[in-house]
Design brief:
mainly alpha, 3 helices
Length: about 90
């Protein structure tokens, strides 16, 4: 049966390449890996995916805790000042 198969021109690689991802080797502390493995197992996802998500969040701009980040307009500032002056 083995003579029927010819793998002489075969190449070792993933069947479907991952688009947008690159395989790398990275050294992480054991406790960091164990943390992500435990958390990933509890959530039913992969620990490498969780590490990737954390790294992606670190790249995104810091979100303000204020509910409204719009700049203060002159009209809004006048309204606030009037309200504060009336309570004084």
């Amino acid at each position: 049966m083995r003579r029927e198969y010819d793998f002489s021109k075969g190449k070792r690689r993933a069947v479907i390449p991952s688009i947008g991802k690159t395989r790398i080797t990275i050294m992480l502390d054991d406790d960091v890996i164990e943390f992500f493995r435990a958390k990933a197992e509890a959530q039913g996802t992969g620990y490498q995916t969780m590490i990737n998500t954390c790294l992606r969040e670190a790249l995104s701009p810091v979100k303000s805790k204020a509910p409204d980040d719009r700049p203060v307009t002159v009209a809004a500032l006048r309204k606030i000042l009037r309200e504060e002056l009336q309570t004084s």
